[in-house]
Amino acid sequence: MESLFSHMVNSMHAEDVKILMKQSSGKNVISFAGGMPNNDLFPVQQIDEIYGTLPLDLKKLSFQYGPTSGYPPLVRSIEKYLRKKGLPVDENKTLVTTGSLQAISIITQEFVNKGDVILTENPCFVGALTVFETYGADIQGIPIDEHGIKIDALKKKIRSLDKTPKFLYVTPNYHNPAGIIYTPERKKELIETLSGTGIILLEDDAYNDLYFKVEEKYLTKPMISYTSKDVEIIYTGSFSKILGPGFRLGYMLASPYIYEKAENIKQALDACTSNLTQILANEFMEQGKLEPYLEFLRKEYSGRKELIQNSLKKYMPEEITWNEPKGGFYVWLDLPERMNSTDIFKESLKKGVVFVTGRTFDPKSTKDDCLRLSFSNMPKEDIEKGVEILSDAIRKKM
Amino acid sequence: MESLFSHMVNSMHAEDVKILMKQSSGKNVISFAGGMPNNDLFPVQQIDEIYGTLPLDLKKLSFQYGPTSGYPPLVRSIEKYLRKKGLPVDENKTLVTTGSLQAISIITQEFVNKGDVILTENPCFVGALTVFETYGADIQGIPIDEHGIKIDALKKKIRSLDKTPKFLYVTPNYHNPAGIIYTPERKKELIETLSGTGIILLEDDAYNDLYFKVEEKYLTKPMISYTSKDVEIIYTGSFSKILGPGFRLGYMLASPYIYEKAENIKQALDACTSNLTQILANEFMEQGKLEPYLEFLRKEYSGRKELIQNSLKKYMPEEITWNEPKGGFYVWLDLPERMNSTDIFKESLKKGVVFVTGRTFDPKSTKDDCLRLSFSNMPKEDIEKGVEILSDAIRKKM
Fold it and tell me: Angle at Cα A330 formed by Cα A325 and Cα A335, nearest 5°?
């Protein structure tokens, strides 16, 4: 496995990894698979500056245990940053987690017993699906359209169930894998639909800062900051897209009663998150290095988005459709129903192009007439060539 | 809580923390409570050197996701280090974890369903007790003596139980909190006792490197490296005592079938451990910085052990007995049965001295005629004064 970039296979379907390993050494592959920044995009220089000027006391502290709830200055920095976005920080409590996946894992452990129903979007972030499966949840997927989760389908699903789902997990902003952003109307409708049902809303907002146009930033307003709601909302965020996944830093914002048990669970998972990564992240925020870095990232990803859109328009067969994302990392290709992306994967891999197959994101692992292209991770100059090869593979399988 | 050093309260009983918070600001307290290195003992200069000369490619990689199993060069370094100690690395598989507590948590999640019996030593490492409680284990404690777990009591307990315990959790080398090390005979007897019972042995060896005399190093030989055994042994180790707890790095060594499910559980807990901390730890080992640092630590802790022993001899009332550890961080005080350490805690806190009460380490949270003194964390010059105050407090409560 080491000959492959591990991050290439992290979000891939297990069966597809087997195909990849059989057919390829992983070298010289053009990968649309990885849902993470390219190594060249990380703020290495900024962290160098921070480390180089870190006072000795803080350096020493970075080797030490910290509180389970998080390094207190980082908790304050996160709260300041969320308050600025309009989030209800004071009514809730903030828990620093070892990546936002740990927050999802904690919430699942807090609420889900084997056989309990939870709702997700379909398609759904595969990392979350892995967590839900590990803890034995009965996962019920709800289809989405270009504006968000389908409200009618959600209502119908809730009515059809014998027991109340423990929560609904959504990634409304720059959806992984579908690349959409919920409209404000859809967010409102979703909150109204859940009101009074007792179903918790688990709002995963890992891509919040990555809008392409500042005039569309208002679309990213998280549901937890909507007023007049009668829904318990747990909000999770991540440093993986705005600093680096290798720091394993995320957080959750939840009401005190949910927080309290969550902190106990975290205590039993890893006692606390690394002080070293927390101290560096806090300096990154406190020294005003985050905002300029986000400006850089937005330009970079927006440029990459243009490139992939132009290439798709140039090469894709007419029957294939896709979204134009307003932010984030992903383009989602809709194939004609008769096609399946696993066949295309095998075909395109022969020419050295990989992506993530549609079924990977389906809770039932079946719906496969779609696929995810990530434009965040590959070298920019490979995008056009990769799309051309993929288009040829699709044409061959039509 | 922030006014207290968080690491002071990390391993304390919840009730004792309440007492502490009521009676003291946490400032100017002499603490025998914290089971971790003093901030002044961390290898700050060595990590500075490593960071300062880290090639750009590795720096970039430190921001990125890594494989769930661990950063491959670190896995190799750990395996080399364990092989040198005689551990059966090749028959087993190594999983890097976010602190060794995560390894304990993973194993508990893998084997324990609510109500399942597990066995521990009594007293037992409180962090592990928290994990076992969180996952609903029925914890059965077995007393220990100065040579290790009491074999007769263990046999009796196993016979008395309706169902087979899932595992026995032990910390045989420089026990936390009791400070003892198992004799080789006791280790052998333990393995023989478990042979054929189906009870897994979970061997926590966080203090292995911290012997005081090189001629006693042979005593640290882990049970997983004993030959002719018919017991499944899972071995866990930690970087918390040999680099720094703030790095959140540990590992487990287990047979492939246990490893496989453990890796899946880790995937659902935090996807992977921080690449940044793993890369730094790997360089620390690969560049030959670990061994000289261990030499330094052994001298330091051995000197501290002398100091606390001399102070105890000088000040303690005659009725009080304690061990002289051969390594590690802890002295365990036995009080006359009529006394309890919680009363002493309240008394000594008035004069600004804290420690961890006996009941903290009892699975049933009752046995309190004992207490733990850690000599690893406090400033060296406070040891004598601290022991004097504690002795006065004990005398008052006699």
Answer: 90
Domain count for chain A, please give it.
2
Q: Which 3 state secondary structure label does DSSP give B31? A: strand
Contact between A102 and B270 using a beta-carbon 8 Å cutoff: yes
Closest partner residue to A274 (CB to CB) among B39, B63, B246 is B246
Q: B244 and B147, same structural domain?
A: yes
CA–CA dist A315, B207 (Å, integer):
61
Residue with tokens 């927080």: A259
Same domain, A357 and A243: no
Which residue from B119, B121, B51, B42 is spatially nearest to B287, judged by alpha carbons? Answer: B51
Distance between CA B168 and CA B74 in Å, rounded? 28
Interface of A with B in 176-235 (CB under 8 A): none
Residue A297 sits in which domain range? 6-42+292-396
β-pairing, B138-145 vs B148-149, is antiparallel
B310 in the same domain as B366? yes
A282 shares contact with chain B (CB less than 8 Å) = no
Query: With an 8 Å Cβ cutoff, are B246 and A101 in contact?
Result: no
Q: Of B237, B260, B286, at which residue does a domain stop?
A: B286
In this structure, is residue B1 part of a structural domain?
Answer: no
Q: Which of A249, A6, A170 is nearest to B73 (CA)?
A: A6
How far apart are the two ends of chain A, measured CA to CA in Å?
32
- Inspect the interface and report whether the beta carbons of B66 and A274 lie closer than 8 Å: no
Closest CA to A365 of A150, A129, A179, A152: A129
pLDDT in tens, A288-323: 999 999 999 999 999 999 999 999 999 999 999 999
Q: What is the pLDDT of residues B128-162, one digit of tens each?
A: 999 999 999 999 999 999 999 999 999 999 999 99
**Can you tell me the distance from the alpha carbon of B389 to that of B395, in angstroms, rounded to the nearest whole number?**
10
| pTM of the full structure | 0.96
What's the residue count for chain B?
A: 398
